[in-house]
Specification:
Strand content: 5-15%
Largest sheet: 5 strands, mixed
CATH topology of one domain: Ubiquitin-like (UB roll)
Shape: elongated
CATH architecture of one domain: Roll
CATH superfamily of one domain: Phosphatidylinositol 3-kinase Catalytic Subunit, Chain A, domain 1
Number of helices: 6
Strand order of the largest sheet: 5-4-8-6-7
Helix content: 25-40%
Distance between the termini: 148 Å
Radius of gyration: 53 Å
Structural class: alpha+beta
Length: 284
């Protein structure tokens, strides 16, 4: 029969009876230390917590030295959850947790030395296993190479036959004409420098002093070139000269560049330097 809504209203609920056990209240339950180690590990140094401090914003625990160094060197945030930690005032010492760790690990230094010894033994075992596997693989490879049949020697390459001479092809006589040969006695090219005289102020300098031209050109052609480039007339006012050790030699208008270079060139790799200036009045 279904119960009504008013049924049971006003009744007092009796408390559940306490379950009686035969356990002694003074009995201490023991747990294995290594199994509890992850619960007491600092997320920064991955060792058992020492001088535990708790972050008030997120309630994460760290070693006192670790969290102090993180806030001093790194960003002001929790290393576990990245919550903002304004300053060291947001840290609080957790002495009760240190007491719990001291209860679980009475000799914390001895426990950590044992952990380090186990880690070294595990790493040594892994290295030995790795070395054994490498030695086994090397031995298998050597055995496979030993069982391979010897390579078949390749036959010596056949000597190549001498190339045949190309067949003569008769073409139209116009196609067999030779290119015109260079005329004998063609003018040679000389390199020289045409530079303003150091004491000359009436005309300026050339934009390009290093010149290369035919050796048949004469000094009178250089004067016309100077008048064109420097916008000066008459060109007969120019003097072209060669500076020697103690004097300057004014060149005749009919001298060619080939003669000048042949006479004044002291080194084949050094260009002859010619200077130009305007003719000076007599007595200056």
């Amino acid at each position: 029969m279904p119960r009504t809504l008013t049924e049971g209203v006003g009744k007092q609920t009796e408390p559940r009876p306490v379950r009686k056990t035969n356990a002694d209240p003074a009995t201490v339950v023991s747990r294995d230390g290594p199994k509890l180690a992850p619960e007491f590990t600092c997320p920064v140094c991955l060792r058992i917590l020492r001088k535990t401090e708790i972050v008030v914003e997120c309630l994460h625990r760290f070693c006192g030295d670790c969290i102090q160094k993180c806030l001093r060197v790194a960003k002001h945030e929790c290393p576990s959850c990245r919550v903002r930690v304004p300053s060291r005032r947001s840290l609080k010492r957790d002495a009760a947790f240190d007491a719990l760790i001291a209860t679980v690990y009475p000799d914390l230094d001895a426990f950590e030395r044992g952990e380090e010894a186990e880690t070294r033994a595990f790493n040594d075992k892994r290295r030995r296993q790795t070395g054994d596997r490498r030695a086994q693989a090397y031995a298998q490879h050597a055995e496979v190479q030993r069982r391979k049949p010897p390579p078949v020697p390749r036959p010596a390459p056949r000597p190549r036959a001498a190339p045949r001479a190309p067949a003569r092809v008769l073409a139209h006589p116009a196609a067999a004409r030779r290119a015109p040969a260079q005329p004998r006695g063609a003018p040679a090219v000389v390199n020289f420098v045409l530079r303003q005289h150091p004491h000359e102020t009436g005309v300026g300098r050339l934009a390009r002093e290093y010149l290369s031209t035919s050796d048949q050109l004469k000094v009178t052609h250089l004067k016309k070139f100077l008048g064109l480039k420097l916008s000066y007339a008459p060109v007969e006012d120019f003097e072209v000269l060669v500076a020697l050790e103690n004097q300057c030699v004014v060149l005749n208008d009919q001298l060619s560049l080939g003669q000048i270079v042949a006479h004044f060139a002291t080194d084949a790799d050094v260009e002859v330097v010619l200077h130009y200036r305007l003719q000076r009045p007599m007595g200056t």
